[in-house]
Specification:
Blueprint: H1 3-29, E1 34-42, E2 57-65, H2 76-86, E3 92-96, E4 120-124, H3 127-130, H4 135-139, H5 158-167, E5 169-171, E6 175-179, E7 184-188, H6 196-205, E8 211-215, H7 223-227, E9 232-235, E10 244-245, E11 249-250, E12 264-268, E13 271-275, E14 294-303, H8 308-320
Parallel strand pairs: 1-14, 2-3, 3-4, 4-5, 7-8, 8-9, 9-13
Antiparallel strand pairs: 2-14, 6-7, 10-11, 12-13
Bound molecules: fe (ii) ion (FE2).
């Protein structure tokens, strides 16, 4: 063998070795679960609030998880992380889609709510809940849209919703849940997004002064939540980019988000957005680089605002309890 050929083969071997090692690290990072702690201050100026001796300060401790992509094979580390996280004390758990990658994974639903949160657990569905993807959909579908979500790959989501509701989640599909005593409303947007008219209808259901939180899977058309004054929006889908390079950020966000907002907390006007980095991905492409899977604990401080009737009822209740 001549010297050039030998050098070429050595370089090829070294390249293949480095590639395999990088892939090994990227696969390993996909199971390196992290927890983020964040806070949001939505306390308002008190001028419009009824004068009262009733304490209006409220604080919600929320667990935000997303993009679990639970497959049929047993994923012990992910399940035990989910079990640990959801066994902590929370006011709310938000799960923002891409929950069950495979139909048989519904058996893992109990791991998603080990301890029922004080006010409840809420979920919205994602694109991987609605569709089965193959590599053609994933790669060519980004160039030629009809291949992205072919109708013959659509899934029946009824068993997925049933499994979540059976363990205590409420799945919001263009619906709003209200907690009058907390002055809180939670709006859930079904995949892919909500029509403007429908969003107006849902917003009209929210009493004036309620803290409004919205859940969605795919971060698209975000300005419509800003223009309607939603207090905070929780989303997923991006996986934080999955591959992030130092100084560059996420290579792709698969949404309207800029690279620096592929995950984490940011604000537009008075609306906060929290985009989860997610806890999994499609098993066919489950690797991460500088972008570990994570769950987020968020605390939101705000002041409850009541209608006169609700205020009277609560004050009566507080006096009776003295
Ligand atoms: Fe996802």
């Amino acid at each position: 063998m001549d010297v050039n050929k030998k050098a070429f083969l050595s370089a090829l071997g070294l390249g293949a070795g480095l590639g395999a090692f990088a892939f090994y690290l990227a696969r390993k990072e996909a199971y390196n679960y992290q927890i983020d702690f964040l806070s949001i201050d939505k306390t308002r100026s008190s001028q419009e609030i009824l004068p009262t001796d009733l304490d209006r300060r409220r604080s919600l401790k929320i667990l935000h998880i997303s993009d679990l992509h639970l497959a049929g094979n047993e994923e012990k580390k992910k399940l035990s992380f989910l079990d640990y996280m959801t066994s902590q004390e929370f006011d709310l758990i938000f799960l923002t889609g891409d929950i069950f990658e495979h139909d048989e994974a519904v058996k893992y639903a109990p791991y998603l709510i080990a301890r029922p949160p004080r006010l409840g657990a809420f979920a919205v569905l994602g694109n991987h809940d609605y569709y089965r993807y193959n590599m053609t959909n994933k790669i060519l579908g980004r160039i030629y849209k009809p291949l992205r979500h072919p109708e013959d790959h659509a899934r029946d989501v009824a068993p997925l919703v049933e499994a979540l509701e059976h363990v205590g989640y409420r799945v919001l599909r263009d619906e709003v849940a209200h907690f009058k005593s907390e002055s809180l409303s939670i709006l859930g947007v079904d995949f892919p997004t909500v029509e403007e008219n429908k969003l107006d209808e849902l917003m009209q259901e929210i009493p004036v002064g309620h803290l409004s939180l919205a859940l969605l899977h795919m971060p698209v058309e975000l300005q419509k939540y800003v223009s309607r004054g939603v207090d905070a929006v929780f989303g997923g889908h991006t996986h934080g980019g999955q591959v992030r390079l130092p100084g560059v950020g996420a290579l792709i966000t698969d949404s309207e988000l800029a690279r620096k907002h592929a995950s984490g907390l940011f604000k537009r006007d008075d609306t906060y957005f929290h985009i989860s980095q997610g806890l999994g991905s499609d098993p066919k492409t489950n690797f991460r680089v500088f972008c570990p899977p994570n769950a987020t604990v968020l605390e939101i401080d705000y002041e409850a605002v009541y209608s006169t009737t609700e205020f009277g009822r609560l004050k009566e209740k507080a006096t009776a309890g003295q």
